[in-house]
Write a structure and sequence with these properties.
Radius of gyration: 18 Å
CATH architecture: 3-Layer(aba) Sandwich
CATH superfamily: Response regulator
Number of helices: 8
Oligomer: single chain
Helix content: 40-55%
Strand order of the largest sheet: 1-2-3-4-5
Order of helices and strands: HHEHHEHEHEHHE
Number of domains: 1
CATH topology: Rossmann fold
Length: 147
């Protein structure tokens, strides 16, 4: 959260944290976001939010808010854009750890790894629905563009 706040300050953007601790908080959170006349939404990583991604994408669309997500699955479900660790790569790396553990390596002896493969995905269909033009320079930076 601190890094997000610093990035917002550097860009001279006003950041408003709208918490949602459970699925029942989502409607109220989006109501608060639209009441505050937000220009966009950033959905931070959370297992609960990931599990509710279809509903969150629908709420963002209904509110006509561009939203940025941490996982491409949100964009696959109709969200605008995502930037985050590639889950398929994380699962492959996890399989290597499972293999080592099954062969006798103690989990405590394995190093902690951080994600190394990140991806930027843009959904142009959603951009068009929101009336947004995604510059070609931004599209060229994306790992995948959904048309």
């Amino acid at each position: 959260m601190k890094e997000t706040e610093l990035a917002a300050q550097a860009q001279k953007l006003e950041l408003q944290l709208v918490p949602a601790s459970g699925p029942n908080d989502l409607d109220g959170a989006f109501s608060a976001i639209t009441s505050a006349r937000a220009d966009a939404v950033v959905v931070l990583p959370s297992p609960m939010l990931f599990g509710e991604r279809e509903r969150i994408v629908e709420l963002a669309a209904r509110s006509r808010l561009p939203a940025m997500y941490q996982a491409r699955e949100f964009v696959d479900d109709g969200g605008l854009a995502s930037y985050g660790a590639n889950f398929a790569d994380l699962f492959r790396r996890s399989a290597i750890y499972v293999d080592k553990i099954l062969k006798g390596t103690k989990p405590a002896d394995l190093p902690v790894e951080r994600p190394t493969k990140f991806e930027f995905v843009i959904n142009l269909k959603t951009a068009k629905t929101l009336g947004l033009d995604v510059p070609s320079q931004v599209q060229q930076l994306a790992d995948e563009v959904i048309e």
